[in-house]
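Model it.
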Amino acid sequence: MTCIIFLLFPVLLSSCSDSGNAGTYMAPPATPQWVVGWGVSPQNALKTSTNQGGSEQSFRFIVVPTIGGNRERVRFSNYFGSTAITIGSARLATASGSGPAIDKAHDASLTFSGNQSVTIQPNQEVYSDPVDIAYTYGKKLAVSVYMQGSFPALTEHDSQAGTNFTTAVGAGNTTNDSTGASFTETTTEWFLITNVDVYGPYNGTVAVFGSSSVDGHNSNFGDTNSYPAGNGPVAGQDHERPSDWLGYSLNAAGIPVGVLNAGLLGDPAGEDAATSSASPNATAGIDRIDHDVLQQPGIKAVVIYTGGVDLRVDCLPATTVAESLTAIVAKAHAAGVRVILATLPPSEYCTTGSPLPSSDDPYAGDINPGPENPGSTQRRALNTWIRNSGSQLPGVVSIADFDAVLADPAHPDFMIPNLNSGDNFHPNGPGYGVQNNAIDITAILGK
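Modeled.
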């Protein structure tokens, strides 16, 4: 029996190969290929308080790959940019400690077609040349980037799970600063970087695709408090997003597959007024599945876990969301990508004047005792469709029943209290771990 135990605060979670999702599964023979060791979806390039633009500035981004490796390349994205930007220098190294320091014994300069700098045009993405840095699974990597000259707000992704570092504006190129002393400020964004790919004997890449619950919102929250009591971040707890947990399971089972996190905050499955295909920052799932998942290196399977925003924010009926999911699945199937379709756990509250939770009645809108919120009524209908009709769609190889493992039997429209981050929209870190156990990892590659 292969078994890995995670002791996280008061909750003990386990993922064992003979009692979890792997059983006695043997992965197919691995072949040399590029896979996504770590990845996120580009979000936008909007000017905000955390994405102001600047000049002559260096950044150090910390990532935790979902698989070990010996040869890497980094993808830099100006996907949402409106002007050209220039990277004057970049490096990849293993991180040292919990701050911005790096290990100079495992550090390499990144080049672009042999050049130290590269100019990236609007809507363009570029890969670095490969470098050879040996690291084991669980080791953090640091991507250092020097932005030459002036630059606008950058294509970015809100980290949701960890801390990155930046110098002051005007500090210049400090990418080779091994101590990290020049990186005097922190940021919650990953600017420019979307992939750290690894090359070697792997079975491919699996993506987890959806909105903030895929992106790991509130994954740094613990379970020491129970809903409806307050909750908050736990110091030192990070990188417990769904993609991180799936990486734990795959590594524990000895399945050499990289995991890509393709979650975006507020991302609906289908288009609405804010995410139509005409929008300059379209993020609807139906619009971005191609770029963010199907065009990724080594992609073999995708866990589709989306639709909650459509129900909770847009108050759409289950039938409309089912149509969007059907279209997304059809795209994956046409690309030869296996689909694991996930049910939606309690998180859907439509804001149409219906019963909503409050401090006076924290379980208002629950089916027990009722009246149920219409958003939850539609969620139940959608989950029924996923378990029945959705499971029969061409390309769907498995259902991950997140609702079954997270719903509180006493209050079925709410998550189990100690797995609820406190907003009843997102699990906490341990909750994402329990949710992960509903994924049949043998379905990723097939038997």
